[in-house]
């Protein structure tokens, strides 16, 4: 099985990505990956806010909901992270008592033809360490209603990782990525989360990488951040 860094290095432009991993020292971590091709997409950063990580513009007025949004949110027992405004929507559903499957249902892909970027979301339950991934994608046949995949991730052993990205690219063409990839992380003790940040960041194309965040459930405010 390929290592996480190798999988990312083999995908020239992953777009945005969510990771759920258990490092070699046994610590469960989430990660959010942000890359960009245009100047506007690259002029972004992750900012800490109360109970949130916000994807914000570093230049210009900002305010583009497809580029600027709450990328991670933590309330009570739930951590939610993903690539758009659906993070807040899923979090609000969980606050009202919905289960992860229900909270991830009924979402749609982004309205950005011709690629129609998938909306990808991860949900983590702190007390149990269980995680769910959701992806709302446009069908290959072009149906208007999204195809929605929900994955309940089984308990991870040390070194296990699951990755979901928006795109798959060879550097010339860009297409929607496979639903998810099971992989392994080489981040190990001591300092597993630090190793995970480095493993992801170093694997991304230097000309396209924008930001990476790694965080443990219940400690989003202490997220480790890397920026271009």
Automatic annotation (TrEMBL):
Start and end residues of each Inosine monophosphate cyclohydrolase-like domain: 13-174
Name of the protein in its database record: IMP cyclohydrolase
One Gene Ontology molecular-function label: IMP cyclohydrolase activity
Keywords: Hydrolase
Matches recorded under Gene3D superfamilies: Inosine monophosphate cyclohydrolase-like (3.60.20.20)
Any one GO BP annotation for this protein: IMP biosynthetic process
Keyword Hydrolase appears in the UniProt entry: yes
SUPFAM superfamilies per record: Archaeal IMP cyclohydrolase PurO
Keyword presence, Repressor: no
Organism: Actinacidiphila yanglinensis
Membrane spanning stretches: none
């Amino acid at each position: 099985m390929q290592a996480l860094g190798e999988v990312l290095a083999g995908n020239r432009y992953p777009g945005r990505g969510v990771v759920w991993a258990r490092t070699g020292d046994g610590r469960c971590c989430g990660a959010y990956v942000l890359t960009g091709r245009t100047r506007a997409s690259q002029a972004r950063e992750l900012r800490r806010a109360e109970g949130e990580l916000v994807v914000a513009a570093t230049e210009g007025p900002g305010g583009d909901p497809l580029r600027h949004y709450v990328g991670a949110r933590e309330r009570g027992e739930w951590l939610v992270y993903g690539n758009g405004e659906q993070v807040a929507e899923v979090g609000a559903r969980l606050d009202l008592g919905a289960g992860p499957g229900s909270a991830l249902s009924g979402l749609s892909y982004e309205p950005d033809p011709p690629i129609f970027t998938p909306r990808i979301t991860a949900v983590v339950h702190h007390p149990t360490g269980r995680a769910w991934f959701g992806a709302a994608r446009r069908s290959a046949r072009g149906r208007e209603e999204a195809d929605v995949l929900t994955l309940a991730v089984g308990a991870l052993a040390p070194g296990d990782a699951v990755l979901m990205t928006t795109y798959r690219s060879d550097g010339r063409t860009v297409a929607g990525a496979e639903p998810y990839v099971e992989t392994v992380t080489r981040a190990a003790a001591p300092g597993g989360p630090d190793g995970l940040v480095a493993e992801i960041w170093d694997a991304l194309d230097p000309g396209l990488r924008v930001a990476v965040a790694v965080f443990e459930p219940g400690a989003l405010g202490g997220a480790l951040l890397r920026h271009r």
